[in-house]
Design goal:
The structure holds 2 protein chains of 2 kinds.
Chain A: E1 11-22, E2 25-32, E3 43-48, E4 52-56, E5 68-73, H1 77-82, E6 90-97, E7 110-116, H2 120-132, E8 139-146, H3 155-163, E9 167-173, E10 183-184, E11 201-206, H4 209-222, E12 229-232, E13 248-249, E14 252-253, H5 254-257, E15 260-262, H6 263-266
Parallel strand pairs in A: 7-8, 7-11, 8-9, 9-10, 11-12
Antiparallel strand pairs in A: 1-2, 1-6, 2-5, 3-4, 3-6, 12-15, 13-14
Chain B: E1 2-7, H1 8-18, E2 23-29, E3 34-38, E4 66-68, E5 79-84, H2 86-99, H3 107-114, E6 116-121, E7 147-152, E8 155-160, H4 163-169, H5 180-201, H6 208-217, H7 220-227, H8 235-239, E9 246-251, E10 255-260, H9 281-299, H10 310-314, H11 321-328
Helix pairs in contact in B: 6-9, 7-9
Classes of the chains: A alpha/beta, B alpha/beta.
């Protein structure tokens, strides 16, 4: 059976570099054995040989197809072992899976992005994509929160974004440290500082469940309609193929029907923030 | 659809000849129940026709409990499975939707489905918990199966349903002329009798559509009550002809083993960070009902409970879902 015909068989990828983003977060730079094409917001199943695999949304640009970056927080069994890997190790990739961000629908609009913690990983990929089509956008605003300045990932990204025409990036931390030049407080607090034309805007939220919940509530208070809010949902996705059942969220397979949903699509389900 | 008739002796010798090309499974009575066994001419007398229902759900022929899904596949001999009741046959409609999905077709499931011929068995009697009719599933197959079998004394009647069934039917010889009037009245009488039995024993049980609404509206108390004897053993999902959730397990050299899983097991939805939407047992218990009666019907054009009643028989906590629905109705 050809590799391509077997949906369960991973593509091998060599780990080229490991970048330390924060004490708990590393970015893995991977060179897949063959070209790997994905849309921003789609996810992959990344495996450590013989250990396990876990779902991640690539944090690199979808315009780059010979190299893939995946930002991983050390949080469970597989990611703990992943964090011990050294350059040269072989990893496995299955995917890309699911429905990513409908970037085409963002054209002509102001894109407000609310991110928290490791949620900045998929957002960085989205930002690369939006940068590429910035002529077709009105504005891109990033509001990002992390626990502390040392937990803030992709530090150079913020100054770079602020130097790009039409882009604005704001940072906040729950707990400040010496030398911090951003805000202090939760990420949703940054929404009070921005200037956005809500009627011609879409909002993207990606982060821990608690931030997604209160971020969505705040956006609705601001006047965003439920179909203007895009949420990237996190579930236990074992197969990524809409079969294994682990990621079911109501009638949806998050891995196949998502992971990106509008709030309108899923708001009838009270379990979404769990 | 057309019918053929042959004598039992000729049916068995035809099967014996087909063994050269096929693995053949038949429902055989054993000490405890009825289950599939490889066909052996010497044990043909133990084959049980038109009685519900093999202990093993038909899905196990297509979704093994555990298999390596990255290894090169062995070429499997084509199979003929005889005696599956329609509750099991109908379950394939949902499994096909999931596993033969156009975007991601499971090659292992597909190969087994295409290399398997199904000779379904009309049910002429019912088991204690049979309730297929309540979910719109007839106790006889008119679709999905390739052929359906009905036995009257020494006569084997085969109802040929699919094109593949037609090809297979040509191997059953010598055929007798079907006395149409007799066959129709025989089958009608059996169907009327079994449907009356199902209707009587399931009086008051809500139908499939209503079941979904009832499950959605139910308060938390009912789930807490019925989950009180649940031990999360997963027998109900394991034995269910439509439950098909699985887990992928990594093995060295990037091999993956697919193992059947159950939403009733603790940790089924737990994510790496520790959050678990189904942590509480009553919540997990309710999940199975929501999946079968609310979510799957919304997503797929197929029923996720075919009324076989195996989950009731298998439950060591003596949880009877039909009693739960009766209480809610």
């Amino acid at each position: 059976m050809a590799d391509t015909a077997n949906i369960y068989k991973p593509l091998r990828a060599r780990l080229e570099e490991v970048i330390e983003e924060s004490p708990l977060i590393k970015t893995f730079v991977l060179i897949p054995e063959r070209e790997f094409v994905f849309s921003t917001g789609q996810f992959i199943e990344l495996s450590v040989d013989g250990v396990g695999e876990a779902p991640f949304t690539p944090s690199s640009s979808p315009l780059v197809t010979d190299k893939l970056e995946v930002t991983v927080m050390k949080t469970g069994y597989v990611t703990n072992i992943m964090h011990q890997l050294k350059p040269g190790a072989m990893m496995g990739i299955r995917g890309p899976y699911g429905r990513g961000y409908p970037v085409k629908d963002f054209e002509g609009k102001e894109v407000l992005i609310l991110g928290g913690g490791c949620g900045l990983a998929p957002i960085r990929s989205l930002l690369f994509t939006l940068e590429h089509i910035k002529d077709d956008l009105e504005k891109v605003i990033l509001c990002y929160g992390s626990k502390s300045p040392s937990d803030c990932i992709y530090k150079p990204l913020f100054s770079r974004l602020n130097s790009i025409d039409k882009f604005e990036a704001y940072r906040t931390v729950d707990k400040t440290e010496e030398g911090w030049d951003g805000s202090v407080g939760v990420a949703t607090g940054l929404l009070d500082k921005i200037n956005v034309k809500i009627e011609n805007s879409v909002a993207v939220v990606c982060g821990p469940p608690i931030m997604m919940k209160f971020g969505t509530i705040r956006l609705l208070e601001m006047g965003y309609r439920d179909d203007q809010i895009y949420l990237s949902m996190e579930k236990n996705m074992s197969c990524g193929l809409g079969k294994c059942g682990h990621c079911m969220m109501g009638e949806f397979f998050v891995c196949k029907d998502g992971p990106v949903f509008t709030y309108k699509e899923i708001k009838h389900n009270p379990e979404i923030w769990k | 659809m057309y019918h053929i008739n042959l004598k039992k002796e000729d049916w068995y010798s035809s099967l014996e000849r087909l063994l050269l090309s096929y693995d053949i499974f038949v429902p055989v009575k054993n000490e405890f129940s009825l289950d599939y066994e490889p066909f052996r001419l010497s044990e043909a007398g133990y084959i049980s026709y038109n009685t519900p229902k093999p202990a093993t759900p038909l899905k196990n022929f297509f979704l093994p409990v555990r298999e390596n899904v990255t290894a090169e596949r062995m070429i499997e001999k084509p199979r003929i499975i005889i005696g599956s009741p329609n509750c099991d046959i109908e379950a394939l409609r949902l499994l096909d939707e999931i596993y033969l999905d156009k975007t991601f077709t499971d090659p292992f499931y597909r190969n087994r489905r295409t290399s398997t011929l199904l000779i379904s068995s009309d049910c002429f009697s019912t088991n204690e918990h049979c309730h297929c009719l309540s979910y719109g599933v007839k106790p006889y197959s008119l679709d999905i199966a390739d052929i359906a079998i009905a036995v009257e004394n020494d006569d084997i009647f085969l109802r040929v349903i699919s094109d593949r069934g037609k090809e297979l039917a040509a191997h059953f010889t010598p055929q007798q002329p079907v006395e149409s009037n007799h066959y129709v009245s025989f089958i009608e009488q059996k169907r009327t009798s079994v449907e009356a039995s199902l209707a009587a024993k399931n009086k008051g049980l809500p139908d499939y559509q209503a079941t979904g609404q009832i499950v959605q509206k139910a308060g938390n108390d009912i789930w807490v009550k019925y989950a009180s004897t649940c031990v999360s053993c997963g027998a109900c999902t394991t034995i269910c002809p439509t439950c098909s959730c699985f887990l992928l397990i990594d093995k060295p050299d990037f091999e993956k083993v697919k193992q059947m899983d159950a939403c009733q097991y603790p940790g089924f939805e737990r994510v790496a960070g520790g959050e678990d939407a189904l942590f509480e047992l009553p919540h997990r218990f309710k999940n199975r009902y929501m999946c079968k009666y609310v979510w799957k019907p919304q997503t797929f054009n197929a029923v996720a409970c075919t009324g076989c009643g195996r989950c009731i028989e298998a439950c060591i906590g003596k949880i009877n879902k039909n009693e739960l629905f009766m209480e809610l109705t």
